Amino acid sequence: MRLLITGGAGFIGSNLADQALDAGWKVAVLDDLSSGRRENVPSAAEFHQVDIQDADAVEQAFAAFKPTAVSHQAAQASVAISVREPQKDASINIIGSINVMQSCVRHKVAHLVFASTGGAIYGEVPDGTRASIATIPMPLSPYACSKFAVEKYLDCFRHEHGLNFTVLRYANVYGPRQDPHGEAGVVAIFCNRMLANEPVSVFARTTVGDPGCVRDYVFIADVVKANMAALQGQIPDRVLNVGTGRETNTLQLAEHIRTTLASKSEIRYGDRRAGDVERSLLDADRLAELLGPTVTVDEGLRITAEWFRQRAAKA
Ligand SMILES: NC(=O)c1ccc[n+]([C@@H]2O[C@H](COP(=O)([O-])OP(=O)(O)OC[C@H]3O[C@@H](n4cnc5c(N)ncnc54)[C@H](O)[C@@H]3O)[C@@H](O)[C@H]2O)c1
Q: Could you tell me if 48 and 122 lie in one domain?
């Protein structure tokens, strides 16, 4: 397997690069380092510093590496930035993705995996329910719109050019190397602040003092596992939710991390943040059926908190 990972200097892409190299695959990373870090790219991987908005540069990287499979992780991944700068979001996430798709077609790539968002694409998920892939997407941010648009472009590219793909709709992903700015950035923020015994804020779901928004937190190892399986054609579904189906509110998350890190941080309560979906939870039964049980939040947060502790100790 010759795997090209766009966004491979970022949180999810770099963890995938490690796993793919462990499996004996040849790996190339294509990333503009806008949010990713060069040191995240494993030394055994080829590196192309390329902006996916530059079609010619993307094409040159494909021509140089000749991938047989592509995992497309590169994106403007912040909901807040997408609200402030929707043109920038669309340019990177839609135009950039079309550039990647066109190179996949030209180079007859056998399989493309696309990192979509289960956390944002369904909009509000009412209490007592979980969003399945049969749920009609209701994107409420430019970011969610751009991800949904790319899913539709993929259908067109399959229809027109026979492009073979899998869409993975991730819940809120957390784990080692995560950045505070991503969709599940709160885990990184809480770990960093709690290690320094600084106060943390639980932003309101509706009213200041409530336990905050509800999310489906999925551990990075499960996301990497889903990518590896999809790239090898082991996922028959064209669209798959990658989550746990278990809900956690922000207060529970804060208390959990505080206990794990034996921190003295104070938990404070803040206003509702514009653009935050109140509740997001995925029906992930199909993922469990295909790949087995996902890592529990207890276990995943323990590993993640320990990683942040070790990183802080080295700094
Ligand atoms: N982290 C989550 O909770 C989550 C949830 C749902 C979906 N996703 C999606 O998963 C993917 C990976 O997310 P992540 O959390 O690893 O984010 P990340 O920011 O750590 O990684 C994204 C990478 O893409 C690169 N990039 C950004 N713009 C680029 C451009 N124009 N050209 C080339 N490279 C570019 C960045 O430098 C970075 O290395 C993204 O597509 C994101 O939208 C993430």
A: yes
Indicate whether 178 and 167 sit together in one domain: no
Alpha carbon of 50 to ligand 1 centroid (Å): 14
- pLDDT number for residue 184: 67
Residues 138 and 209 in one domain: no
Answer yes or no: is the C-beta of 185 below 6 A from any ligand 1 atom. Answer: no
Residue 16 and residue 157 in one domain: yes
What's the gap in Å between 52 CA and the centre of ligand 1?
12
Please state the domain count of the chain. Answer: 2
Domain span at residue 164?
Answer: 2-171+220-242
Same domain, 93 and 234: yes
167 and 210 in a single domain? The answer is no
- Tell me the CA–centroid distance for residue 36 and ligand 1, in Å: 8
Residue of 30, 37, 29, 34 whose CA lies nearest to 11: 37
Domain match, 88 and 231 both: yes
Helical residues (DSSP H) of the chain, grouped into ranges: 11-22, 55-65, 79-84, 86-90, 96-106, 118-121, 142-161, 185-195, 220-231, 250-260, 285-291, 297-314
Which of 207, 210, 203 minimizes the C-alpha distance to 186? 203
Q: What is the mean pLDDT of each run of 10 residues along the chain (315 residues)?
A: 98 98 98 96 98 98 98 94 95 98 98 96 96 96 96 98 98 92 83 96 96 97 98 97 97 96 96 87 98 96 94 86
Q: Is the model's pTM score more than 0.85?
A: yes
Residues 38 and 94 in one domain: yes
User: Does residue 8's CB lie within 6 angstroms of at least one atom of ligand 1?
Assistant: no
